[in-house]
Amino acid sequence: MASYPDTSGYMIAGFIVSFLTMGLYVLSVYIRNKNLRSDLEMLESMDKPEKK
Amino acid sequence: MQSKPVALTVLDVLSVIALGVATYFALIFAPTEITMGQVQRVFYFHVGTAWVGMVGFMLAAVTGVIYLATKNMKWDRVSVAAVEVSTMFFFITIVLGSIWARPAWNTWWTWDPRLTTAAVTELIYIAYFMLRAGIEDPEKRARFGAVYTLLGGISVPITFMVIRLFRTIHPVVIGNESAAAQGGFSMAPTMVTAMLIGFAAFTIIFIDLMWHRIRLGGLQEKVEQLKLKVSV
Fold first, then answer.
1. C-alpha torsion B182→B188→B190→B192, nearest 10
2. How many CA atoms lie within 13 A of B138 on its CB side?
3. Which residue of A40, A49, B63, B159 has the smallest Cβ count within 10 Å?
4. Which residue of B has its CA nearest to A2?
5. What is the DSSP letter of B26?
6. pTM
7. B230 touches chain A (CB under 8 A)
8. Cβ <8 Å between A6 and B35
9. Which residue has the higher pLDDT, B183 or B94?
10. CA–CA distance, B137 with B147 (Å, rounded to integer)
11. Under DSSP, is residue B2 helix (H, G, I), strand (E, B) or coil?
12. Assembly ipTM
């Protein structure tokens, strides 16, 4: 059986960094979207003429 | 704000599946490379993310030109989305390269032509957001951004070609590599399959994230316009 150099730690680190970076990016898009939606809601309510 | 299209939901599901499949092919399907061992498996994500990173930067340059010709803000939104998503993917490419380099070259980083041009490319596109953040007028911001992506786009073919034109230790996957290259390996057919799966998976994920980012840009624009209207 062939013996390979033990570089598993580097491989695990590489995949963790990849998933973490993609996950954080998706989270940032979600949070920005959520904040913009609440801003939009607030601005739309300010833009509506006040009803008495 | 329009509700989320069904096609985008389908693409979200496809992206998750594609990422799972690409991970399976990289970790289980592909054989262990004999000289580098398990760390070589990051190669499939390294080339996949590099592919979408470079395609996105070129797309930003093309949409930048279209914006300059048409002055239609939707092309600016596409350009921003392409740069943002690609910068994220290209960051992964660089970090994976560095992780792979440690056991292969015995160093985390070296100022090799490929590594240097890749780092410069990433910094160019990080600076793009700093430039945009400093301009308040949306049209001026879009115009400056378009010219910037056009000039920044020059760094992409340079980064791609540098390992084919100069003496470098970075291996070449497709084509003839430099005599100084270290850490190269001959690809078994199963490795080629895993690499192609990686290309396809990251392309799907890229399109999905681009679509989300374009929609976010549309929402940002709407909020900006409404802010102006309310303040008047």
1. 60
2. 16
3. A49
4. B34
5. I
6. 0.92
7. yes
8. no
9. B94
10. 16
11. coil
12. 0.91
Confidence band, pLDDT 50/70/90 cuts, at residue A50: low
Pick from A25, A32, A34, A46 the residue to mutate for testing the B interface (most B CBs within 10 Å): A25
Query: B40 to chain A nearest CA, in Å?
Result: 7
Give yes or no for a contact between A7 and B103, defined as CB atoms under 8 angstroms apart: yes
CB–CB contacts below 8 A, A to B: 96
What is the three-class DSSP state of B98?
helix
- Which residues from A are below 8 Å from B38, CB to CB? 4, 6-8, 10-11
Average per-residue pLDDT for chain B:
93
Residue B13 has pLDDT above 50, yes or no: yes
Quick one: which of A48, A7, A35, A16 has its CA closest to B95?
Answer: A16
CA–CA min distance A10, chain B (Å): 6
Per-residue pLDDT reduced to its tens digit, B36-92: 999 999 999 999 999 999 999 999 999 999 999 999 999 999 999 999 999 999 999
**Which residues, at least 6 apart from B12, have a Cβ–Cβ distance to it below 8 Å?**
B208
